[in-house]
Fold this sequence. Notes:
With 418 residues, the protein is mainly α. 77% of the residues lie in helices and 0% in strands. The radius of gyration is 21 Å and the shape is globular. Residues 1-10 have low confidence and may be disordered.
Amino acid sequence: MPDALKPDQTPDLLSRRFVPLFGTQFLGAFNDNLFKTAMLFLITFHLPGVDIKSAATMVTAAAGVFILPFFLFSGIAGQLADARDKAATARAVKLAEVVILGIGGIALMLGSVPLLFACLFGMGTHSTVFGPVKYAILPQHLRPEHLLTGTGLVEGGTFVAILLGQIAGGLLPTGWAAGAMLAAALAGVVASRFIPPAPPAVDAPAIDWNPVTASTAVVREAFAVRPVWLATLAISWFWALGAIFTTEFVPLVKGSLHASEAVATLFLAVFTVGIATGSAAVGRLLQGRVSAKAAPWAAVAMAAASLSLLLTVRDGGHGGDIVGFVTSPAAWPILLALFVLAFAGGVFSVPLYGILQTAGGAATRSGAVAANNIVNAAFQVGGTLLAGSAVAGGVPIVVVLAMCGASALVLIPLLRRL
C-alpha cells in the first residue's frame, strides 16, 4: 500500500507527506517578498541619484519583471511537473533559489540595479516552476478528506509568508536582509529533502520546451474541462481582487483616513490573517469534501463586507498614527469589514483549488495549475491597471474597492455550475 494511504501512519497534515512541503513553500514565498521589498526600499530610499519619479518607474517595472516569467514559462513548468517527480523538481528549484539569492544578496550590497532586476526575474522564474508543484503534489500525498485542509494551509501559509517577507524586507538593514534570504533559502533546501517522492502518471504528456506552444497547450487542455476553467476564472478573479486591495491600502489609508504607514501595515496584516483563517477553516466547514457549494455564499459575504468598508471609510479623518486610528470610533468596523472580506475570500478560493487539483486527472494536474497561474497573472495585471485607471480618473479609492468586492456577485451563476 502506498505510504500516503497507510491507515496506521501519523495524520497526513502532521506527517512527512505534508510538513516538509509546507515548510518549503512557506520559505520560498517569504524569500520572494523579502527580496522584492528589500530591493524596492533600497531603490526608493538609499540609492544615490534616484529621484522619486525614477524610483516610482523602477518599482512599477519591478512588478512587471517578477510576473513576466509566469506568462513565459508557466506552460513549461506545468508540463515539467507532470512529466517528472514533483519532489525532485522541488529540490532542484530550491537549489536554484540558493544561487539566485546568493547573487541577489551581493546585488543588494553593491546597489547594482541591473543585477537586482536579473535576480528578480530569476525569483519570478523560481516561483513559476514551483507553483504547479506545490498544489499538484497534494493529491498524491494527502488522503481525499485532508486535501481541502492541506490546500487551505498552503494558501493561508503563502499569504502569511508574503506579509512576513514584506515586513522583514522593509525593516532589516541591507546586510541583514541578504543574510536572512540566504538562510531561508538554505532552510528551504533542507525542508525539500524530506518531501516524499511524487512520481508522474504513466500517461503524462511530453515536455514542450517552446514557451509559447507549451503555454497554449496547457491552457487549451485545462479549458477543455468545464470545472477546471470555471474554477480558474473564479480563482483568478480572487487573486486580482487581492492584488487590487493590497496595492491600494497605502493610498486608502493616507488619502481617505489621513493615517500613517503603520495603519496601512495593520490593514495588510488583518487582510492576511483573514485569508489565512478562512483558508484553514474551510476544510472543516465542508467536512473535507471538495465542493464549491460554499463559494456563492462567500461571494455574497465579500460583496457585503466591501459595502460595509465603503460605509465605514467614507467619512475619513480617523486619526494619524496607529494609536489614534485604533482608538477612533470607526476603526474596528473598518478592520472587521476587512477581516470578513478576507475570511470569505479564503472560504471562496480554497475549494476552487481543490476542484482544480482533482477535476482534470492526474496526468495533467500540474498543467491545470500552470494554466491557472497564467490566467491569474493576466487578471492581476489587468485588474490592477483598471483599478489604478479608475483612481487616476477621480473615482475615490474606497468606491473602487467596494465595486471590486461587489463584482463577486457576478460570479455566482458561474459558481453554481461547478
